[in-house]
Specification:
With 504 residues, the chain is of the alpha/beta class. It contains 17 helices and 23 strands. A ten-stranded mixed beta sheet has the order 1-18-19-22-17-16-11-12-13-23, sandwiched between helices.
């Protein structure tokens, strides 16, 4: 038993080109380039799907980010972007971009549907069907598709969204009592409407889910994100948005590099042959049994690369405890898949020496028995519960809050870790409010709690879907909810073991 004490974990470093290490991803990319710069260079194949107007917005923006993007105000927290080719050694031949048209008239037609299920189902099919058709009929491969959408799809393609009342709105859909009925309607077009109610009202999740089986990598981009100066008339609003231009360029370029097959950076001081697994649970809200849930696992290698393994659907949710737990058999199968994948990707053809399972809830005896059986004779296994904690805050007599990395070691198994806080490098703090810690508890297996906290702090810097200093959550749990939402966005979603980039 250790005595409670307050320590500070130094900021984890990341590795970039030429094996150089820096704290801030933007510093490392600017000075040394991406980690995989010698393996992933040159022209990349890009496609754009959307209406003609939205496609032109994307092409114009891609041209722009080939050049430096500089803020009008000097801000150490928002550094300038050197340009796509200068940073990543990749470029896009604008004239060679593959384009797929989605008629704006069809988009506007479906946006008039008052029934949210029908509206989003038809809108996603507009894009998904055309991408599938391209995949089956065209011979020019596309690595990443930009899905260009008008703001109206973002606005009215989300849960509980309602379109404004208008005389030309269309009431297309079924009554609630008919949506899940097995009864066949006299008119076939009514029967066709049923399928829409098997999907969540969320354009992003539904589109990603429909494309999983085709292994299409997409980046959804709203027109106002990249063309606000053209679309908006409020100069004050435009001037405010300008301050985020460099951040957008960093984020879009980094995710493009990652989704096209590159590794922007990797953890700098991670122990070799260590595997981190984040458990994903999501209730099936569309079914009759509200206890049913989908389980999955996100596996992250010591390189930082990630894979998603889907488990079975079952009655994993306990409404009394509000926790998710799977059976011994399902736990065994899920972890076995992860271990074999790690071994396949390992340079030494070995199982991980240690595997850390991160979850927001605990592990019951049955599922932990399954995990242990899967790792027997292969790997050491440690179960870690990570939760947001708002029971207390720490204050100090300075202008800024406690520094990121502050850690309160309570016992040899429990600690509170501040993943947000003041960061000297960017001279500000992550978040606007006085930060709360996350609680970190080793609840199964044995491992030094300080080492566990160091690993978790490092894993907050592996979000390749953005280019920021750090996240507040480790990547093992950062996208757990969104991945779960994609896997449960519709009934009987088909998915193989796929890289993380297919879900974000």
């Amino acid at each position: 038993m250790i005595e409670s004490k307050l320590i500070h974990i130094p900021e984890p470093k990341l590795t970039f080109g030429f094996d150089q290490k820096m704290e801030d991803p933007r510093d490392g990319l600017t000075l040394f380039g991406a980690y995989s710069k010698n393996k992933h260079i040159g022209q990349i194949s890009v496609g754009i799907i959307g209406s003609k107007e939205q496609r032109e917005y994307v092409k114009s923006y891609l041209k722009r980010i080939h050049q430096p993007v500089i803020s009008e105000k000097t801000d150490v927290a928002r550094p300038y972007f050197p340009g796509l080719e200068a940073t990543f050694d990749i470029f896009i031949n604008i004239d060679a971009i593959q384009e797929v048209d989605v008629p704006r008239s069809k988009i506007d037609e479906f946006l008039k549907y008052t029934d949210g299920h029908q509206r989003v189902f038809n809108l996603t099919n507009l894009y998904a069907d055309k991408l599938t058709k391209y995949l089956n009929e065209e011979h020019i491969p596309v690595t990443v598709w930009f899905v260009a959408i008008p703001d109206e799809i973002y606005q009215f393609g989300r849960p509980k969204s309602k379109i404004p009342k208008a005389v030309d709105n269309k009431t297309v859909g079924l009554r609630k009592k008919d949506r899940s009925s097995n009864q066949q309607f006299l008119f076939e077009e009514l029967n066709d409407l049923k399928e829409a109610y098997e999907y969540e009202i969320n354009f992003h999740n539904q589109l990603k889910a429909k494309l999983l089986s085709e292994k299409v990598v997409t980046q959804i981009i709203r027109e106002s994100t990249i063309a606000y100066e053209t679309l908006w008339t409020d100069q004050e609003k435009i001037n405010y948005e300008k301050q985020f231009d460099t951040a957008k360029a960093w984020n879009i370029s980094t995710t493009l590099y990652y989704k096209s097959g590159g590794l922007p950076w990797k953890l700098g001081e991670v122990r070799k042959n260590v595997c981190y697994l984040g458990l994903v649970y999501k209730q099936i809200e569309l079914g009759e049994n509200r206890n049913n849930a989908c389980c999955a696992a996100q596996m992250f290698l010591d390189s930082g690369d990630g894979m998603v393994f889907r488990g079975n659907i079952g009655p994993w949710y306990n409404p009394k405890t509000k926790e998710f737990h799977i059976t011994k058999k399902d736990a065994y199968e899920l972890l076995s898949m992860s271990l074999e994948s790690f071994r396949e990707k390992s340079e030494t053809d070995e199982y991980p020496h240690e595997i850390f399972i991160h979850a927001k809830t605990g592990f019951d005896d049955e599922e932990w028995s399954g995990f242990c059986e899967a790792t027997e004779g292969k790997s050491k296994i440690i179960g870690v519960r990570i939760k947001d904690d708002n029971t207390f805050k720490l204050y100090r007599d300075f202008s800024y809050c406690v520094p990121r990395g502050t850690t309160l070691l309570v016992t040899d198994k429990l600690a509170y870790l501040w993943t947000k806080g003041y960061i000297p490098r960017i001279q500000t703090q992550l978040g606007l409010e006085t930060p709360n810690p996350i609680s970190v508890e080793v609840i199964r297996g044995e491992k030094d709690i300080e080492t566990v906290c160091k690993d978790i702090l490092a894993l907050t810097k592996l979000n390749y879907n953005a280019c920021i200093y750090a996240d507040g959550s480790p990547v093992t749990l950062r996208f757990a909810d969104s991945i779960g939402e994609v896997l449960t966005a519709g009934k009987d979603i088909k998915s193989e073991v796929l890289p993380f980039k297919h879900y974000v």
